[in-house]
UniProtKB/TrEMBL annotation, chains A, B:
ATP binds at G128, D129, R156, S227. Its EC number is 2.7.4.16. This is Thiamine-monophosphate kinase. Mg(2+) 1 binds at T51, D52, D129. Substrate binds at D59, E277, W318.
Amino acid sequence: MVTEAQTLGEVSEEGLLRSIFPFFTLQPGLLVGPGDDAAVLATSGRVVATTDSMVRGRDWLDEWSSAADVGAKLLTQNLADVAAMGGTPTAVLVTLMADPATPVAWARDLARSIGEGAARAGVAVAGGDLSSAPAEVLVVSITALGDLAGRQPVLRNGAHVGDTVAVRGTLGRSGAGLALLQRGGDAVGPPSGIQQQCLDHHRRPTAPLAAGVQAAAVGATAMIDISDGLLRDADRVARASGVCVALSGAALRPHVEALVPAVGDAAARECVLSGGEEHSLLATFPAGSVPAGWQVLGAVAPGSGVTIDGEPQQPRGWDHFHQ
Amino acid sequence: MVTEAQTLGEVSEEGLLRSIFPFFTLQPGLLVGPGDDAAVLATSGRVVATTDSMVRGRDWLDEWSSAADVGAKLLTQNLADVAAMGGTPTAVLVTLMADPATPVAWARDLARSIGEGAARAGVAVAGGDLSSAPAEVLVVSITALGDLAGRQPVLRNGAHVGDTVAVRGTLGRSGAGLALLQRGGDAVGPPSGIQQQCLDHHRRPTAPLAAGVQAAAVGATAMIDISDGLLRDADRVARASGVCVALSGAALRPHVEALVPAVGDAAARECVLSGGEEHSLLATFPAGSVPAGWQVLGAVAPGSGVTIDGEPQQPRGWDHFHQ
């Protein structure tokens, strides 16, 4: 019997697994779930696969993020990458590498959060791995699989001059939430409405998953999820496609203005341009075919890099070994 | 330009990735490889998926294992799990979470080793993730995907009374290699031939990958790869199938005798019964259908657990939080 007051070092691996498997609801495409050597999934002939990880002390701080926050965020990061290919996420594998002194409650909260988020997205938790790690180490890694249902994947390299650049979802909220936490966050008083939205999006970002399929269906020419900042991710599309992503200051302004009450003028602009972990989708569409719910941010132009109102921008944002 | 004398903290993430991508050879089924939001793979309708990780200080010690050893071993662990389902491994995703003080040379040796091993197995390195980690932390995680080519997966729960139990591959070599290292290993003098084989198998185990498909094709009723020790893994088959795995002492004896010159009598027996990380395949077959290259170890009997010559055995072996 596993209780939440125990540590991982005090329970058996199999006991812990038995106690968390109930958090993982079955999905029709999951033919063999956790508990065998590997999982087996039904696919339509092309499978999308991606992986992303979070490391305590680097990708989260326990003071700011609960186990449930970490699980929800890492799940979104992975599912957004599948969506950014035009795929429908179908399954995840979850790895926890933890100091044996980690409370069982932490591991169970993580698993419950991932299980709930996966169920909401119609995604199976198909398997995973559990390893002990040295003192203080806590690492979570997810691999997500998805299905293209016969469609071609939407890559980063297909943007054409004349295409329209559009975003689905918010800009800068996660970055603004992080800025608030770095300034002292909740400690300085109850956050305003927009501040709370930013804190929530930083801790548990959501991604417009269905919009990835929507974009693919109308012929999006390139797509990426904004994980490392608008400028940096737009620059990736520009470089892969051999074009310039020409953003409009007027189109960005409402995104900046929405954040000014949360973090002030200068930080709001910086968050919109360079805030990471947003997980909105940035795509390019043939002119005239931007689907409902997407906001136009500019156009694809000849040249290279990213501009705002014609001014070249230095891509800045998240680099894992240079923070 | 990335040089081997630098640390991960001194080079850009994208520079490092550019320097390791050439180690990953293309495979026909890889439709989109590393560098986009996710990879895309061709599959035949059912995909096998598994993940396994190694943590420095827990799963390896730098004194005993090079980066190339770690890469080769983790790759085998993952591919063996796909084989144990009767699948053909097709692709891996590789995650490295590393202290920025880690030498670039370590990361490149790891990537080269995984790339070379994957190429030998006809497996694509489809993508991965790179994260910084706190001081001293070094974690590698692989997710492997595989294809069933229309076959049913071979699970742990299909063993029937009367089936023959057989193994493909060695027993106890990795455990014996570990025992030698724990006793001082190479330091006490040049290892004998069998000792060197054990050290090699501990550092870079190989798995009989094609034998998984071979077993599935002739109707194996249950299969598992020996990752946590013969007794523990046989017990998993016994429990999942609701049967007793009845091993024969005479059939095990040659495996023990082969290791006696390496580690002595008592340790040889313990390694064969409980040594982990061997990655041989253990399967049950309808009587009379054991394929070539497999060695019979016993039979499936009514009852539960594992016996040797009728004596019940306590499954012992690797538990990640109880070593």
